[in-house]
Amino acid sequence: MEAVLVAPRFGASVGRDVIVALACALVCALAWLVATQRALARATAAARRDGRRRCELGLELMRVRNSLMHSDESLAAGRHPCFALRSSDVAIVTFPKCGTTWMQAIVQGLRSGGALDYDDICEEIPWDILALDCGQDLDAEQRWHPRVFKSHEPAHSVAQGGRYIVVLREPADALVSFWRFLPAYAGLQPGDVSLEAFAGALFSGVSVSGQIWHHLLGWWQLRAQPHVLVVTYEDLKRDLCGEVAAVAHFLGMQPGPARDELVARVAAQCTLDAMTCAQHARKFDDHFVRAHVLPRMRCAPAAAVGGGSGTNAAVTHVSKARRDGGRVGMAVELNLSWRHAGHFVLLCALSAALALLLVAYFELSPLTAFGIAVTAVCQANRSILQHVELTQRALDVAEEKARRAADKREALQAGVSAKKRR
């Protein structure tokens, strides 16, 4: 026998009251759903705006502090034409976070016979544009021969007359490494500057070293010159010993068993594990430079990261410096898990209520009524969400226009005040 689904019938005395009650419940539930979705949209938009504002403040503070890192005198003293290299000098040139400290360790090991009797690599290999600020004399003799300098300068502004070891790196990898390094170095909290915002700033030239593409292309054009050795970060990772041997050859070391032994020793000293071990990590944490530049950058003495390009895990102590109302560590967090669960339960309840109405009014089978109810409720929910999203977008656009207008008014008022003071 075939099973027959019989639609339940309500008694005449209570049927009308039940239907009215269900209809009222359905209307109230829909109203609550709309209000909840609007509240969620407003909270999400507020979090998004707070994140954008926080990112803008972080970028501005990072730019200001990065510009304070060097004095104008030190910057000029380390660049062409004020500073000139001797023909035997070597400049290790990179865009930031492209293997600078790694190559410094390699060259220092080769010229010193593998000696590790130094406190900070930057004391042995001065940074050209920071030497004056750090109390170093660029014209002085160094402990080891040849003299070696660190530089992030483009080809047109670097000190002329010497030899150059240029380390290049995949720009996308350099971006991520720099993003993990520079905001913390400038005393920002993790998350103050998003990767997307930092990418826009970096590739448009926020670094003192200039625009990364100009830097890369300027040195790439000189790759065939006999006084230029181009090394890639990826080759250092792939074949460290072979690249150390190439650097030794460029430095003029005669081939033979002694050089091979030194190359093997230096390669072993310059692995990631060796450079980040407790015994040697301090040699590459940049503490010598940080001690001089952090006060200029208005950062706390411990408010920066250590380590060079890919050589050292950062140890970060970030300050809580903020201005213009920016608040550190106050990111808006929305814990919506319970609301998502309640939203699902509400949709099920609405579907059940609508199904009962369909059964009572149209004498449909429960299965058919429930299918129709679920479809209708889901479609209504989708329409509500789309409406809320469009409304919120319009509100965001209006608020952004109002904020820009307020900024323009403040700028105009500041200009008028400055003219009056003059």
Instruction: Sketch the topology as an H/E string, one letter per element.
Output: HHEHHEEHHHEHHHHHHH
Number of helices: 14
Structural class: mainly alpha
* % residues in beta strands: under 5%
Instruction: Count structural domains.
Output: 2
How would you portray this structure in words?
It is a single chain. By secondary structure, this protein is mainly α. It has 2 domains: 8-37 and 337-409, no CATH class; 66-293, Rossmann fold (3-Layer(aba) Sandwich). The chain is 56% helix and 5% strand. The chain has 14 helices and 4 strands. It has helices spanning 12-67, 72-77, 100-112, 121-124, 171-185, 195-203, 212-220, 233-238, 240-250, 257-269, 272-276, 287-293, 337-362, 366-421, and strands spanning 90-94, 148-151, 163-168, 228-232. A 4-stranded parallel sheet has the order 2-1-3-4, with helices on both faces. Helix 3 (100-112) packs antiparallel against helix 10 and helix 13 crosses helix 14 (366-421). The chain is elongated and about 100 Å long. The termini are far apart.
